[in-house]
């Protein structure tokens, strides 16, 4: 990083996301089995979700004691008497991840998870966290992300996106960590790495014609309309097959230039996107030179609380082809 240097935020976020990734990878190795999905057993992702949130919130609290966190989870379910085995598993994973800091008690672990209860809003500074974004991808052993962003007065100013199952830069270490700081740029580094790793600058694709784009979308057709995306791609002259992946790994893919479009097309009129599902990915794409709006072409507004109340869907591109993509989306959604 060079200019504004949110260096304290950078250090805290790298520590938080890489510690959390150690936890989620350990849970995936130990608890996700071939028949987790067929049995519809969500317990591994539940353990990893809570443990990841505890580890990130503990790290943020150590670095920035007064910063609120808008996190996806809270510990109410874990406090339930009936959930003792789940609670014990979460506590054990958190203790392992923080073994070099302090011996964590059960009460501390629950209180760290509960730090994620903040409401966000238009004023002041807060972090937003998705401890495991792409829960379905995690259970399938495919893409998922740990997504952390800092919002000040409604604007995303910093983001860190850990993608444990995306290829590591230069094949060093494990996974991909993308960091972005407003006005400074976007960088990548291996997510799990022994020793000091360099931050490498990241740029969006420089294609000028939408027809040349690869586009990404959700694996889950319930999260983004895949029939409409076929029509939009056709209208734009895109011949490449859609790249389907779970989580904000899609934003990382656009930021890094492997795809020039990410489409998220509403499937239900009443659904509101959650801020933690987008903030880290949006700043990564924007600071890599790209553009992100909703399906109407409006900027995403992160100052309305826990949800993107003023927006529907998402279009992220390399910037150069944005207006053409918005126009094609409008045509298809209106028809
Ligand atoms: N009907 C819907 N439309 C859009 N997004 C939805 C949705 N229902 C759930 N989601 C969100 O989609 C996210 C996953 O996105 P993707 O499909 O890009 O992997 C989920 O995050 P979690 O996996 O953290 O729960 C969840 O918040
Ligand atoms: Mg999510």
From TrEMBL:
Record GO terms (molecular function): 3'(2'),5'-bisphosphate nucleotidase activity
Cofactor(s) it depends on: Mg(2+)
PROSITE patterns listed in its UniProt record: IMP_1
Record keywords: Hydrolase, Magnesium, Metal-binding
Organism field: Natronomicrosphaera hydrolytica
Family: Belongs to the inositol monophosphatase superfamily.
Name this polypeptide is given: 3'(2'),5'-bisphosphate nucleotidase
InterPro entries hit by this protein: DPNP, Inositol_monoP_metal-BS, Inositol_monoP_superfamily, Inositol_monophosphatase-like
SUPFAM superfamilies in alphabetical order: Carbohydrate phosphatase (SSF56655)
UniProt EC number: 3.1.3.7
Catalytic activity reported: adenosine 3',5'-bisphosphate + H2O = AMP + phosphate; 3'-phosphoadenylyl sulfate + H2O = adenosine 5'-phosphosulfate + phosphate; adenosine 2',5'-bisphosphate + H2O = AMP + phosphate
């Amino acid at each position: 990083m060079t200019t504004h240097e949110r260096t304290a935020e950078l250090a805290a976020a790298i520590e938080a996301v890489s510690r959390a990734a150690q936890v989620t990878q350990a849970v995936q190795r130990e608890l996700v089995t071939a028949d987790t999905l067929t049995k519809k057993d969500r317990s591994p992702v539940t353990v990893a979700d809570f443990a990841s949130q505890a580890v990130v919130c503990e790290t943020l609290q150590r670095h920035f004691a007064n910063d609120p966190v808008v996190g996806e989870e809270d510990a109410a379910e874990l406090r339930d008497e009936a959930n003792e085995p789940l609670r014990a598993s979460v506590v054990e994973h958190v203790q392992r991840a923080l073994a070099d800091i302090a011996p964590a008690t059960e009460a501390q672990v629950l209180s760290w998870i509960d730090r994620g209860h903040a409401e966000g809003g238009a004023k002041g500074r807060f972090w937003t966290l998705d401890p495991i974004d792409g829960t379905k991808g995690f259970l399938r052993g495919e893409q998922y992300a740990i997504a952390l962003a800092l919002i000040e007065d409604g604007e995303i100013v910093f983001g860190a996106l850990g993608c444990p199952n995306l290829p590591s830069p230069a094949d060093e270490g494990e996974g991909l960590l993308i960091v972005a700081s407003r006005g400074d740029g976007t960088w990548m580094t291996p997510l799990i790495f022994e020793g000091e790793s360099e931050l490498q600058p990241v740029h969006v694709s420089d294609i000028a014609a939408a027809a040349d784009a690869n586009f990404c979308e959700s694996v889950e057709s319930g999260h983004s309309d895949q029939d409409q995306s076929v029509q939009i791609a056709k209208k734009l002259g895109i011949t490449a097959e859609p790249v389907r992946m779970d989580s904000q790994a899609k934003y990382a893919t656009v930021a890094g230039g492997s795809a020039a479009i990410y489409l998220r097309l509403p499937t239900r009129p009443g659904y509101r996107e959650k801020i933690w599902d987008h903030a880290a990915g949006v700043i990564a794409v924007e600071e890599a030179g790209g553009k992100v709006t909703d399906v109407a072409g409006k900027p995403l507004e992160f100052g309305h609380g826990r949800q993107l109340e003023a927006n529907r869907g998402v279009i992220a591109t390399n910037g150069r082809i944005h207006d053409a993509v918005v126009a094609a989306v409008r045509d298809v959604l209106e028809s």
